[in-house]
TrEMBL record:
<feature type="domain" description="Rhodanese">
    <location>
        <begin position="28"/>
        <end position="122"/>
    </location>
</feature>
<protein>
    <recommendedName>
        <fullName>Rhodanese domain-containing protein</fullName>
    </recommendedName>
</protein>
<dbReference type="Pfam" id="PF00581">
    <property type="entry name" value="Rhodanese"/>
</dbReference>
<dbReference type="InterPro" id="IPR001763">
    <property type="entry name" value="Rhodanese-like_dom"/>
</dbReference>
<dbReference type="InterPro" id="IPR036873">
    <property type="entry name" value="Rhodanese-like_dom_sf"/>
</dbReference>
């Protein structure tokens, strides 16, 4: 029997059009925003992604919500394509689903996270 968090993760992923790592450069070229939600210690240990906006997980919703006073300048509306990145693609699925809950209908995450970007050689 699956754990509760496994069921929550599956439900989150069922709502997303998850992005393979190899597709990230094309997404960025069309204007998507890659958001690295890994904590600073993890980014220091694993490596940075130069093209990514760094928004740690605990403030993601406030920074991406175009109606929030704490929003990023890039959070200009519900049509922004947010591509969330974590280390392995678990936390990012939950985070992207949370952005969907805010009405950010183009939010998704990277399958396999940072590790998949690195393995594909697409650390943009």
């Amino acid at each position: 029997m699956a754990s509760r968090i496994d069921r929550v993760l599956d439900a989150a992923r069922d709502r997303l059009q998850r992005m393979p790592a190899a597709e990230v450069p094309a997404a960025l070229a069309r204007g998507a925003l890659l958001v690295d939600i890994r904590p600073q210690a993890q980014r220091a240990r694993e490596g940075e992604v130069p093209a990514a906006l760094v928004v740690e997980r605990n403030v993601l919703e406030w920074r991406c919500d175009p109606t929030s006073e704490a929003r990023l300048p890039q959070a200009v509306g519900d049509d922004v394509e947010w591509v969330v990145l974590c280390s392995e693609g678990y936390t990012s699925s939950l985070a992207a689903a949370s952005l969907l809950d805010l009405g950010l209908h183009r939010a998704t995450d990277v399958i396999g996270g940072y590790h998949a970007l690195k393995a594909e050689g697409v650390l943009v």
